[in-house]
Design goal:
By secondary structure, the protein is mainly alpha-helical. The protein folds into two domains: 15-55; 58-193, Tetracycline Repressor, domain 2 (Orthogonal Bundle), CATH 1.10.357. It contains eleven helices and no strands. The chain has helices at 2-9, 17-29, 36-43, 47-54, 57-79, 84-101, 103-111, 113-121, 126-146, 154-175, 181-193. The N and C termini lie far apart (85 Å).
Length: 198
């Protein structure tokens, strides 16, 4: 009888935003749509709770994509070889190649191309802002290693590099073309190596 009372008094742990993100990540990795109603039902919370935590379906997607990309990018940079412009070419090539073949990302674009491209490439999207911030940090390392001062400031250069990557990966995917990664690598190399006038 005492055991029954003890078990009855055990409270279920409250669901928090981290639980929602973990579930959303699992669904993203398996290629499922992130449906707020379905997520709420599986978590045992109301839709209003998820909207209070994330603001919108777009923000929930953005959180999942940013986290996945940041981890992916960190792994590439951590295992990259070379310094300066050699490092740049190596990281850009690996990064774009893996994005082009990422099953979850391709599935997301296939399911809803208009929504996906808006979320991934809009200047107002937190996805692009975070991607550019990661690129700025990387460019600091590259330019220091190559001892160069690019003609463009790093914020502008990072923005242009991200846009080049978007054009080759997302636009080509929607058009059904195979992205030409080497052309993207060459274009980015030229931009970064173009030094400011003395």
């Amino acid at each position: 009888m005492a055991t029954v009372r003890r078990n009855a008094s055990v409270k279920r742990r409250r669901v928090c935003p981290a639980d929602a993100l973990a579930l959303a990540r699992r669904k993203w990795d398996s290629g499922e749509r992130l449906d707020v109603g379905q997520l709420a039902r599986e978590l045992g919370v109301g839709r209003a709770t998820l909207f209070r935590w994330f603001g919108s379906r777009e923000n929930l997607y953005a959180e999942v994509i940013i986290e996945a990309y940041a981890k992916h990018r960190a792994h590439i940079c951590r295992t990259a070889v070379g310094t300066g412009l050699d490092l740049l070419d190596h990281v850009v090539r690996r990064n774009l190649s893996s994005l082009a073949s990422a099953a979850a990302l391709r599935k997301f674009i296939e399911q809803d191309p208009e929504f996906a491209i808006r979320l991934l490439t809009s200047p107002s999207s937190p996805v692009q802002a975070r991607t550019i911030a990661l690129e700025v940090d990387f460019l600091r390392e590259v330019t220091a290693g190559a001892n160069i001062t690019p003609r463009l400031d790093l914020d502008t250069l990072a923005y242009v590099i991200v846009r080049i990557g978007e054009a080759f990966i997302y636009a080509d995917t929607i058009a059904g073309n195979r992205p030409d990664i080497e052309k993207a690598v060459a274009a980015i190399h030229i931009l970064v190596s173009a030094e400011a006038n003395p």
